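Q: Got a minute? One more chain.
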Amino acid sequence: MEGDSTTINITETPKERKGKAPLLATPPASSSIKPVVQKAPKRGYKRGLAILDVVLRIAGIAAALGAAIAMASTEETLPFFTQFFQFKARYYDLPAFTFFVIANSITAAYLALSIPISIVCIVRPHLVAPRIILIFLDTVMVALTTAAAAGAASIVYLAHNGNSDANWPAICQQFNDFCQEVSGAVVASFLTVVVLMVLVVLSAFSL
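A: Always. Here it is, folded:
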């Protein structure tokens, strides 16, 4: 019949489907591709803290060394004396002042020797081991310097004010220069303690 149309169905074999499957596959949408971005570690602030660490160590060296030199060079002799006595004040006459000089000298030497470790933290700010070493050693130096400064401060207080209960008179009215120099040395030592405490905090933040 003229109005009828003939439909021919062509079936594909499995082999033909395998060959055409890759060609018919649509590429994935660009929106579904998520690029993997690796975040670089934030080392900038760690390097900045390491630079500040070096600067503070240099300042600590100056404070500790200044305290030790000021105390070690302190000596005063009164202009009057008797036949058997000469009134002289020296730092090594008091064990607390001797310990003060030794402790601050050790602290200054330690701070100088620790600068290379701090420089390593600037070059490689991601390293953790140098920070832990600095935290431990800085804490030890805080204890040592605090003990020396506190012991010397107690002697300076007695030199300025005396103790009437123990019949210890104040000697700073006679040894004025001596008291001023040892007082300055004690203040410098406490500044060293503050610097060391800040260094401990910086190393802890840098971990």
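A: The longest helix spans residues 129-161.
Q: Perfect, thanks.
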